[in-house]
Amino acid sequence: MTDTPPPVTARRRLPLTWLGLLPFGLFIALFLIAPTMKIVIGAFQTPAGGFTLDNIRGLFTTSILNSYWISIKISFASSAIGCLIGFLMAAAVVLGGLPKVIRSPLMTFSGVASNFAGVPLAFAFLATLGPLGLVTVFLRTEFGINLRAMGFNILSFWGLTITYLFFQIPLMILIITPALEGLRRDWREAAECLGASAVQYWRMVALPILFPAILGTFALLFANAFGAVATAIALTGSSLNIVPIMLFAQIRGDVLGNPHLGYAMAFGMIVVTGVANVVYIWLRVRSERWLK
Q: Does residue 247 lie in a domain region?
């Protein structure tokens, strides 16, 4: 009886194509996961390194709660207006009678503008709608319209909301366009054959199908505005007490700051934006089921 050699077990080798994801994974680990864990851990630590809930309790002081409330209102207003204008623009390009040559420049501009934020965006709006901005001075000298006398201030609630619209509207266009393209022509033809008007088609067919995508995009825009930091600080400075500015005041390193309270505020921002993103992903999945 001959001894049969044991079967050779094939070793599983990681495909070389996965190596292409290594730089991306390293980037995510260093600049997303590690800072997030630092914030979460720091929110429950004392300066000496011990565990405490005092930082979380500090979030419920009047000034911090007011800053969260102002940030939520700005995020809600910019998201609602951005969704409305962006939806109408995308619908005009995809379903309307606009020339097709308009779509490519619009989508290109939306891709650039949706990522245009920070100091350049703040400077652009100050130079346009600030106290000595181009539009402000032009309206005052040519038409006698004084925006400041009418109550408009770029360093206010509505000033920051209008500034956020510069990247909120393009982001809405980019996300809602594929959903509008997913509306089938035969759905509209079937509705028309049954005697439905254009208003009835949109109210009873199109909008119910698009509603999860619209609501999900609203959640994403809300998270996008709530987490905007550089634009708010560069534009308003300390004149508007929103969460990013209050957070910056805690972690900038002066003797009056409390870095661990800043960690707790950042942790609260992570929770709010995280919930909004989870809602967006869930509703996006539901809308894609309809559009397939």
A: yes
Residue 275 and residue 222: Cα distance in Å, rounded? 10
* Residue 3 within a domain: no
Within a domain: 12: no
CB 96 within 8 A of CB 179: no
SS3 state at 51: strand
E-strand ranges in 111-267 read: none
CA distance 141 to 287: 50
Residues 177/170, Cβ–Cβ less than 8 Å: no
Side-chain half-sphere exposure of 232, counting CA atoms within 13 A: 25
Number of H helices, E strands in the chain: 14, 0
Q: What is the CATH number of the domain that holds 99?
A: 1.10.3720.10
Q: Count the Cβ atoms, other than its own, within 10 Å of residue 254.
A: 8
Residue 205 is assigned to a structural domain of this protein: yes
Element (H, E) at 25: helix 22-28
Asked whether 63 and 243 are in contact (CB, 8 A), the reply is: no
Report the candidate in 109, 219, 222 with the shortest Cα–Cα distance to residue 164.
222
Number of domains in the chain: 1
Phi, psi angle pair for 70, to nearest 5°: -65, -40
Domain boundaries, position 283: 31-291
- pTM for this model (two decimals): 0.84
So what's the pLDDT on residue 97? Answer: 72
Tokens of 272: 């709010």
**Burial class for 32, CB neighbours closer than 10 Å (0-12, 13-18, 19+):** exposed
pLDDT tens, position by position, 26-72: 988 988 899 889 989 999 998 888 899 999 999 999 989 999 999 99
Q: Write out the two tokens for 261.
A: 């309270």
